[in-house]
Specification:
Order of helices and strands: HHHHHH
Low-confidence stretches: 4-14, 37-44, 128-141
CATH class of one domain: Mainly Alpha
Shape: elongated
Largest sheet: none
Strand content: under 5%
Number of helices: 6
CATH superfamily of one domain: Ferritin, core subunit, four-helix bundle
Structural class: mainly alpha
Length: 231
């Protein structure tokens, strides 16, 4: 017979198992959509984007960018205090995991590496990196060592250790900055990518994340908290 003390642990374990199953399902669905894109979305066009193309670079870099958002969302889904924050985190986790599956599916179809070989955002022209060209070093004017909006290892560790309302505020601040940092990549891909399905995905990301950013600003204001400075 399960003791009273063991019941909360059993419930948490069940929730964790269901979360893992949901993530796996989202990956599988997204990956399948990525493979189907070759015939369904691309209209039978067998052309493969070059390794240094906008299409490949966006799929590689946005997968990395999304994966950090997925990690932060998983923390908030488990530890946040406000149910609205948990709901937002769940929506972000499942939608972005599905999108990662799609992008990785395309990369597999194109026989391209799942991640870029050398830095990030080299597929964008320098003035689209979200930084002033005048303030960038020569190395930064091509590929970058880190993408804008990404949380540092220290910030991620602090989020995992936080408890109570602090989890909600920290998650909203980090995720809002994360959304803001990824916007330039999405806009550039929407304007310059050649794969119709990828263009539509980038456009969908813009619409969804702009709405989420507005909501997160409102939720921070309700808590008397300010957004983080852009990095």
């Amino acid at each position: 017979m399960t003791s009273v003390e063991e019941r909360p642990r059993a419930v948490r374990s069940q929730k964790t198992a269901l979360l893992i199953l949901g993530i796996v399902a989202a990956i599988a669905v997204g990956f399948a959509l990525g493979f189907l894109a070759r015939t369904t979305f691309l209209g039978g066009d067998d052309s493969v984007p070059a390794a240094d193309s906008v299409d490949v670079g966006f799929a590689q870099d946005m997968s990395v960018h999304h994966n950090q958002a997925i990690d932060m969302s998983a923390v908030a889904l488990t530890n946040a205090e406000d149910q609205r924050v948990k709901t937002l985190a769940f929506d972000m986790l499942t939608s972005q995991q599905n999108q990662v599956g799609q992008m990785q599916g395309w990369l597999a179809v194109w026989d391209r590496s799942p991640v870029g070989p050398d830095g990030y955002m080299g597929w964008m022209s320098g003035d689209e990196h979200g930084h002033s060209m005048a303030s960038m070093t020569p190395a930064e004017s091509g590929s970058m060592a880190a993408m804008p909006g990404m949380a540092t290892n220290e910030e991620l560790a602090a989020l995992r250790k936080a408890t109570g309302p602090a989890v909600d505020v920290m998650f909203l601040q980090l995720m809002l900055r994360h959304h803001q940092g990824g916007l330039a990549m999405m806009e550039y891909a929407a304007d310059h990518a050649e794969t119709p399905a990828l263009v539509r995905l980038a456009q969908s990301m813009i619409s969804t994340q702009e709405g989420e950013a507005t909501l997160m600003k409102q939720m921070l204001a309700e808590r008397g908290s300010e957004p983080l400075p852009f990095n």
